[in-house]
From TrEMBL:
Residues 27-152 form the NTR domain. Keywords: Disulfide bond, Metal-binding, Metalloenzyme inhibitor, Metalloprotease inhibitor, Protease inhibitor, Secreted, Signal, Zinc. Zn(2+) binds at residue 27. This is Metalloproteinase inhibitor 4. One of its GO terms (molecular function) is metalloendopeptidase inhibitor activity. It is found in: Secreted. It comes from Pantherophis guttatus.
Length: 209
């Protein structure tokens, strides 16, 4: 789910563009609220990362990274997967591969979100919401349990210029962190979930005062 943004209007700093190995290849992630990233993923798990290995895909013979994990909790995707043992990612960040830190024991427990492929493997990418568990805010941990999912019908629209207030629809929450705080991880990203209330209107909900 890509937010309605005009990339040309976007401050270049906000676009996470990485072209490390091959300058013709790059991975660009639109700034996305954690709730949007959770809603657009079909698997979300909390896991310890045990090991990392470069493996070759048997069908395409392309190399990729396979992380062995120990699942702690599955937040989303349990209809399809019970216990995830491995997650896969592309070899380089230019191809949207994500590097997980396994040497740092304090930060080796992660929140992972990604995609279940048609052959039942879990793939994770740079543009997914992936963070060491202890770097999540308290509200994000609470919202992961249910609230983010409850609000997936609502749309989150990033507001990057003054004036976007006037165009907001009732099924939409306006994400203003960049405008007000010049950061993607501002108050709303750290604390809020966009939920649909009984009157059918979507509004930000905060767990903490
Ligand atoms: C991994 O953890 C080590 C030790 O804390 C740290 O120095 C390093 O920057 C981390 N790497 C990444 C990619 O986060
Ligand atoms: C949001 O959380 C991140 C990571 O925990 C932190 O670095 C940042 O300062 C927080 N932002 C606000 C506005 O609290």
């Amino acid at each position: 789910m890509i937010p309605l943004l005009n990339p040309l209007l976007f401050p270049p700093l906000l676009l996470l563009t990485l072209s490390i190995q091959d300058p013709t290849e790059a991975c660009s992630c639109f700034p996305t609220h954690p709730q949007q990233q959770i809603c657009s993923s079909n698997i979300v798990i909390r896991a310890n990362i045990k090991s990392e290995k470069v493996v070759e895909d048997s069908s395409s013979s392309l190399k990729m990274i396979r992380y062995e994990i120990k699942q702690i909790k599955i937040f989303k995707g349990f209809e399809k997967m019970k216990d995830v043992q491995y997650v896969f990612t592309e070899l380089t960040s230019a191809k949207c591969g994500i590097k997980l830190n396994i040497s740092d024991k304090k930060n080796s427990q992660y929140l992972l979100s990604g995609e279940i492929s048609h052959d039942g493997r879990v793939f994770i990418y740079l543009c997914n919401f992936i963070k060491p568990w202890n770097k999540l805010t308290r509200s994000q941990k609470i919202n992961l349990r249910k609230k983010y999912e409850m609000g997936c019908d609502c749309k989150i629209t990033a507001c990057i210029e003054k004036g976007c207030y006037s165009t907001v629809a009732s099924q939409e929450c306006l994400w203003t962190d960049w405008l007000l705080e010049s950061t993607v991880y501002g108050y709303q990203a750290n604390n809020s979930a966009c939920l649909k209330y009984r009157d059918g209107v979507c509004k930000w909900h905060n767990n903490l005062p």
